[in-house]
Amino acid sequence: CATVLNAMKPALSFYETGSASCTLTRTTSMLEAALDVLSRLPYLFSKMESEFALVESGLSEVWMKKAAADLTNQKGFIRTEASDYQLVEAFLAFKRGWDYYR
């Protein structure tokens, strides 16, 4: 509790006197870091607005269901294609050629 009180003493003093002075010196890297954070705010705000609109309208759930269905279809396609005899033979022939080359 004493540590918190010591940390708050300057703020309390400024409040009591009604004025404050700041002598904080910022380095170039501190300013660059602050600019980096500030430059992301418009993007983050736009992203937040878009996500809110999608959730509020219900389109986000529709999109998630469609993406899940498409993923299931893609997995089925990959299983079918990966089990094709010609593809397996081509892969094994490539591996034999690669091993011979190495």
Give me a quick take on this structure.
With 102 residues, the protein is mainly alpha-helical.
Radius of gyration using CA atoms only: 30 Å
Based on secondary structure, the structural category is mainly alpha
Largest sheet: none
The count of strands amounts to 0
Strand content: under 5%
Helix content: over 70%
Q: Cα distance, first to last residue? A: 69 Å
Shape: elongated
* Count of runs of 4 or more consecutive helical residues: 4
Low-confidence stretches: none
What average pLDDT do the residues reach? 89
Element string (H = helix, E = strand) = HHHH
What keywords describe this structure?
102 residues, 4 helices, mainly alpha
Describe the structure.
The chain is 85% helix and 0% strand. By secondary structure, it is an all-alpha fold. The chain is elongated and about 85 Å long.
Structural topology:
Elements: H1 2-17, H2 28-57, H3 59-82, H4 85-101
